[in-house]
Design goal:
about 20% helix; eight-stranded antiparallel beta sheet; 4 domains; alpha+beta; Beta-lactamase; Lipocalin
């Protein structure tokens, strides 16, 4: 009930969000007007500058809008490190899977116009996808049987629909080896897709879809969520229904009305000097990164280029309920439908950052925050986001009327989690907290009394009370086996978490896990594999592993652990007769900077405050015996609670 109420509030707020005008998103405004601390926003500049100087990625552009106004827009580093070309606010990036949200909006425009039925079979518009077969499942496990050819197939229980394509429940999958990413499956069926329906940049979408019609579905439509090529199929649906090529439809119906002047499937010759280079080996000709020439295959799932200013406008249109600068793109109720979780609680999930374990659902083209305490998505329940494999990220928080966009450029499927974490934590931590009037000081005045508060306080994963990150949910344990792919012979470890339980027990990248406990992992889907890996905190887990060319398996055993906080911590000590507070975890928090001790003044019994900056308050909490066991930052609606760790 709590989550449902929060979702309704988020939807209501989305309808009431202030409408941005063109110039509001072109000029950075006063941070105070948009509710940010200028000093704490500067932390973001410093953080991204520091990582730009490391050279990989070589540069970033970060944009933030709040309440319809541009609050922050800064480039750092280089657009081309080798040629020392500086990054610009309007540098052009390959946005990868952030193309999916654009394709979703284009699809729903046709639904709004009555030209496309959301629950109609896809074959109504693409007859080549009629009567597709489905891989049979093992009655004992419910897993698809994909470890032997010829595949054992059965008819689909129902046809896949346009809604299925939008919410990744069509039964289609992504191909291997084209998508060599740990989030995607790597079974025989995924390999088959890569062989028979490859992405060919020199062929039109129609040819690709025709090839799909010769392949089976991995799942029964509507029964399993798996990230897939459905958005590329939607591009072809849009062509058939609209009578225009997909690129022409987007340009005339979406990009031009929204003044997204640098967004499309390729970069014109006169703008190539703004295209951000990919560090290392450059994208191969005809690959989805080869955007410096006109395209033939218009990939709605990953082929679009854009800029931070353009994507801010796209997000603001959604936050406004489907309108920007007088251009109505979608109906408000359509935006609400798209940005509301559409997955039922019992939906089977095949990996890739969706489901209750991630605090995340999926709407019609967007990941949606569903859990108030934990999610990969920043902000309130009902916030929505996604990211692109080249290193791009966006998030929209309807409650705070906040838009975050971060773009960098890296080799596809490198781990971009650090940068996505940075944009969420640094942005929310920069929001101002309403100040409370200070009462006359009355509290401890001697050093002996101050020692009661000395210690380290752990605030979990949250750098802001508006983006809660309680990282231990429902007693689930953590193994550190976060990057694995399902292969015919078992689970291939891509990269165990550094210093995690598995890595400490000896598991290394490249290991093939052939059994968990006494049960074989051969032929498992990612969904089934994650189900066996998970378990309660402190519960033991035993793995059988084949390493390299060894024929005899290794046996590795260890205990699952509590999920580690991404370290938001404060160290409190006494210096020169005053209480001093310093951020020592992964992130600065409020007025407390990493590595910079800050003295606090007495405010009242057990409560202190920072005399400068944003006047952060810190109140210490005592147990029934009167011993300090925790701390609260800015007590009240925006408070953040931490426990005494030592």
């Amino acid at each position: 009930m709590k989550i449902i109420q929060a979702s309704c509030m988020a939807a209501l707020t989305l309808c009431l969000a202030g409408v941005a005008r063109a110039y509001d998103l072109e000029t950075v405004g006063d941070p105070d007007i948009t509710g940010f601390s200028a000093r704490r926003l500067e932390r973001m500049t410093s953080w991204f500058k520091e990582h730009s100087e490391k050279g990989d990625p070589s540069g970033f552009v970060v944009g933030i809008a709040r309440g319809g106004k541009l609050a922050y827009l800064k480039p750092t580093g280089f657009a081309d490190h080798d040629r020392k070309i500086p990054m610009r606010p309007d540098s052009i990036f390959r946005i990868g899977s952030m193309s999916k949200q654009i394709t979703s909006v284009a699809t729903m425009m046709l639904v709004d116009e009555g030209k496309l039925e959301l629950d109609a079979p896809v074959a109504k518009y693409l007859p080549e996808l009629r009567d597709m077969q489905v891989v049979k499942t093992d009655p004992a496990t419910g897993d698809a049987i994909v470890d032997a050819f010829p595949l054992n197939l059965e008819p689909a229980k129902r046809a896949m629909t346009i809604r299925d394509l939008l919410r990744n429940t069509s039964g289609l999958v992504y191909a291997q080896p084209y998508f060599a990413d740990p989030g995607f499956g790597n079974t025989a069926i995924h390999v088959l897709y890569g062989a028979r329906a490859p992405f060919r940049r020199d062929k039109p979408i129609a040819s690709f879809v025709a090839n799909l019609g010769t392949l089976p579905l991995l799942h029964q439509p509507g029964e399993v969520w798996e990230y897939s090529i459905g958005y590329d199929v939607l591009g072809r649906v849009i062509e058939v229904v609209s009578g225009e090529s997909f690129d022409q439809f987007l340009q005339s119906r979406l990009f031009a009305p929204l003044h997204m002047v640098d967004t499309g499937f390729s970069v014109p010759a006169d703008k190539l000097d703004r295209l951000v280079a990919v560090p290392g080996a450059q994208p191969a000709p005809l690959s989805d990164g080869d955007v410096g020439r006109p395209q033939t295959f218009f990939s709605g799932g990953g082929g679009i280029v854009s800029t931070v200013p353009d994507f801010l406008r796209f997000c603001q249109m959604l936050l406004n309920g489907g309108e920007l600068d007088g251009a109505r793109i979608l109906k408000p109720e359509t935006v609400r439908l798209m940005t509301t979780n559409s997955l039922p609680p019992d939906m089977h999930l095949a990996g890739h950052e969706a489901g209750p374990a991630y605090g995340t659902g999926w709407g019609l083209g967007f990941a949606i925050r569903t859990n108030p305490d934990f999610s990969f998505i920043p902000g309130a329940v009902g916030s929505f986001n996604w990211q692109g494999s080249w290193g791009t990220f966006f998030s929209v928080d309807p409650v705070e009327k906040l838009i975050l966009v971060m773009m960098t450029q890296r080799q596809q499927y490198e781990d971009n989690g650090l940068y996505f974490n940075a944009i969420r934590r640094l942005s929310y931590a920069a929001l101002k907290v309403p100040e409370a009037p200070a009462p006359p000081a009355s509290g401890p005045s001697n050093t002996a009394a101050l020692t009661d508060y000395v210690g380290r306080y752990d605030f979990g994963g949250s750098a802001s009370s508006l983006d809660r990150q309680v990282l231990v949910a429902d007693g689930k344990g953590w193994t550190g086996l976060e990057s694995v792919v399902a292969e015919t012979g078992g689970l291939r470890v891509i990269k165990p978490a550094e210093a995690g339980p598995a890595a400490r027990a000896g598991v290394t990248a490249g290991d093939l896990i052939t059994a968990i406990g006494d049960k074989s992992t051969g032929g498992l889907t990612l969904e089934a594999a994650f189900g066996r890996i998970s378990g309660p905190v402190n519960a033991p887990i035993k793995l059988k592993i084949i390493r390299g060319k060894q024929s005899d398996p290794l046996v590795v055993a260890f205990a699952r652990e509590a999920v580690p906080a991404h370290s938001v911590q404060l160290r409190v000590r006494v210096a020169d007769g005053k209480l001093v507070v310093e951020a020592t975890g992964g992130w600065s928090i409020l007025d407390f900077d990493k590595g910079q001790p800050t003295s606090v003044a007495v405010r009242s019994k057990d409560e202190f405050y920072v005399e400068s900056g944003d006047h952060t308050r810190i109140a210490f909490v005592r147990d029934a015996a009167g011993k300090v066991n925790g701390a609260v930052l800015n007590p009240g609606p925006w408070e953040q609670r931490g426990a005494l760790a030592q």
